[in-house]
Amino acid sequence: MTYLLRRLAVFPLVLIGVSIVVFVAIRMVPGDSITAMLGTEAGLLTPQQRDALAAYFGIDQPWFVQYGRWLLGLVQGNLGISPTYGKPVLDVILERFPLTLELALLSMMIALVVGMPAGVFAATRNERLSDLGVRIAAMIGQSTPNFVLALLIIYTLSAGFGVLPAMGEFSPLWQDPLRNLGQLILPAITLGFAFAASVTRISRSAMLDVLSDDYVRTARSKGASARSVIWRHALPNALIPVVTLSGIEFGYLLGGAVIVEQIYALPGIGRLVLDAILQRDYALVQGCVLFIAFNFMIVNLLVDLAYVALDPRIRLGER
Amino acid sequence: MIPLLSVSDLSVGFGRKPEANEVVRGVSFELADGETLAIVGESGSGKSVTALSINRLVDFGGGRITGGSIRLKRADGSVLDLTSATEPQLTKIRGAEIGMIFQEPMTSLNPVLTIGTQIAESFRLHRGLTGRQAMAAAKDALDRVRIPDAARRLKYTPNQLSGGMLQRVMIATALACNPRLLIADEPTTALDVTVQAQIMALLAELKRETGMSMIFITHDIGLVAGIADKVMVMQNGEAVEQGELNQILDQPRHAYTQHLLHAVPHFSSGRATRSDGQRDKAPDAGPALKVDGLVVRFPVKAGLLGRTTGAVHAVDGVDFDLMPGETLAIVGESGSGKSTTARAVLGLVRATRGSFSASARKAASGQSARPIQMVFQNPYASLNPRLSIASILAEPVIATGGRATAETRAKMTTLLKRVGLPEESLERYLHEFSGGQRQRLCIARALMLNPSVVVLDEAVSALDVSVQARVLELLVDLQREFGLAYLFISHDMAVVERIAHRIAVIYAGQIVEIGDARSVLSAPKHAYTKKLIAAVPTIERRRERFELDTRQVPSLVYPLGFEPGPAKWEQFGPDHRVRMEA
């Protein structure tokens, strides 16, 4: 419990650090939000009009004053208003987030359901032909860029079977689950493919380590069957690296998958950030990055808590 | 009468061509019901492989039985050749008819499962018990190995128990289904000597209770004396001699058995101590090392802000002095603070309080200004495998700001020769050397700077017994030649007896008894020293019964600012002091 409080106490510090970096970085990019918003029409503005607009959006002040104002808003739960969408930043992000979260969860499920059994199987068939097969497949999975895979999937489906992935307006899970799944399953497979390959490789090597441990020999000396040795004695000990890897990958996925979202025309966090940067929508970029950083920290915390659940030797907060 | 187990002409090989790479060749023995066979040998003798072949666990380690037969009389009276048994047959036999315990209890239990679950598994597998029934059976099994408070301990995971407790849990697991054969593969090697005595006592008692047969594998022929009926001695994969216990111990016929019995250090209650002590001959020479009131404490932190709430008193007020040419052995069990003392003397941990002075003697020419060097326990881990021998030996010189000159090189060659390694070793790498040779290298490395004191932290503990004897001889020779003072940290009384002039017994961070080696070993005065010495297995006391004792070591954690009272000492003879018990 004290450990949890200590970890949560660090969150604001990290978030402030992240926000300062983003705040400064986005303002160092040439171009400003007014030009980006109005396009060529921005050239028609008189200097007075321009200044008035800048003052309206608050971008006439030095960056630290802007930062101070933004921070003040933040502690009141206000991330600012996005000029592009004309809505509070938090609302814009929360509209997009369910899709990203669902996609990340689906991809991870695919990765674990395919990757772990494949890795365990390969480990028990160490150096045999089937092990080699799994290892080659994993290597291919890891080295295929996901846009290639996405295009291949779309091409095969449309040219081979005349089926098109469900496009058009995204429908959330709670409105139309079937349509929602239809829209997300292919992107999830695309993202889950490389993820599964990594999971396979790491579970294989972790299992190989564990299978030569003394307690596995003990289990065998008690008369445990091969299946019980693998699933009951060895696998729980091999899970830590798998959890670590999954946590990191999942954290990345929560930050959005720009390319895959683009290809499958999905309005996720990835595309939101990309558009916000192109539009010089400062408030939105800051909000998104902060949100992504926050998610990452939450995932990391969950991973650490998972360690404790998996291995009684790990006690948190010990130095 | 069919024997319980009859192994004939067993050969086991490893690798892709097991026939060409046999590590056990033509081993035969028989074991009757209720009998105990001890298999004795050094590492690589094939003793463990022989044992693992009996329940065919050797298959999982990449081994294959290449010849011979292993006939087991099963519970129903039928006889099965285990070399040709199928895996389903074997899983029914393992645990139910053949139980096994291993060397390292710390790593032999599954770290993520509670010990209750692990013991209950045997009952699930072979007795068909489930849930509460299996747990109740597991509790009875723990009671049987005399673990106090068994019901609560069932919920513990292995990291919450000490090594001795874990080995009892292993025994409980192995004996859960009353196997008629127990294979014990060096079950006490990783344990302290008093804990070892406990485990041996337990095994002896359980054997009397159940009438099971046992195969006991060990490198320590002294340990065998208390428990075995028959002994088989193995060397290089072959059984060189076997017979009744007394016959092997009293009239060994094979040269190797004789060597094991005579050339190897055995504890003999202070009769084999050295007689070349320097202390009384040169009373006016100053000590090579003087330690005064050494205290090492480690903070215990707790709470949200990690405040220090107490301290582990690892070393608590230790004083001693060490004369040139003298060996002071510090003996104690794991956690007693003996290694921390050594590390504090070397400056590897910071002393909380206390002073040292180490003086380089003017008399001996070429003594270094940095007079203390060390040799550690594991020669496989304490040498860098990427460096050539020449670089390893040059390291202390370079580390102290010197340069590797022609003179350094000449010194390397001399020292290599002196420790008994060929001169041309200089350009070679570690993997070409055996454990004993590596420890000789470590000794040569320690001598590169002409130290006056060498700290030897369990320096021979990782070596095979016969190698141990030779390294000890070398150490004694070097001591005489260079007038070295040794601070010899060890848990092994037999080794200590061979090399120490004086002995300090350390318990719970404090020296409880210190004095002349012969006096301490032959007439120990402190209760702990007596217990420690009584626990050492010897050939002479071969029929003595081990007694069970479940007292716990006191906790070393004290509240912040706690200071123990001043020690009161009682003097026995000219050089033998004992701390009075509170």
Notes on the protein architecture:
The complex is a heterodimer of chains A (319) and B (582). The radius of gyration of chain A is 24 Å and the shape is globular. By secondary structure, chain A is mainly alpha-helical. Chain A is built from 13 helices and two strands; from the N terminus they run ααααββααααααααα. Chain A folds into two domains: 2-90, no CATH class; 94-310, MetI-like (MetI-like fold). Chain A has a two-stranded antiparallel sheet with strand order 1-2. Chain B is α/β, with parallel strands linked by helices. Among the domains of chain B are: 103-178; 290-361 and 504-582, no CATH class. Helix content of chain B is 31%, strand content 25%. Chain B has 19 helices and 22 strands. In chain B, the strands form four sheets. In chain B, strands 15-16-17-13-18-19-22-21 form an eight-stranded mixed beta sheet, sandwiched between helices. A six-stranded mixed beta sheet of chain B has the order 6-7-8-3-9-10. In chain B, helix 8 (193-210) links the parallel strand 7 (181-185) and strand 8. In chain B, helix 4 (115-127) packs across helix 5. Chains A and B meet through helix 1, helix 9 and helix 10 of A and helix 2, helix 4 and helix 7 of B. Chain A: This is ABC transporter permease. Chain A: Keywords: Cell membrane, Membrane, Transmembrane, Transmembrane helix, Transport. Chain A: The chain crosses the membrane at residues 7-29, 103-123, 144-164, 184-202, 238-264, 284-310.
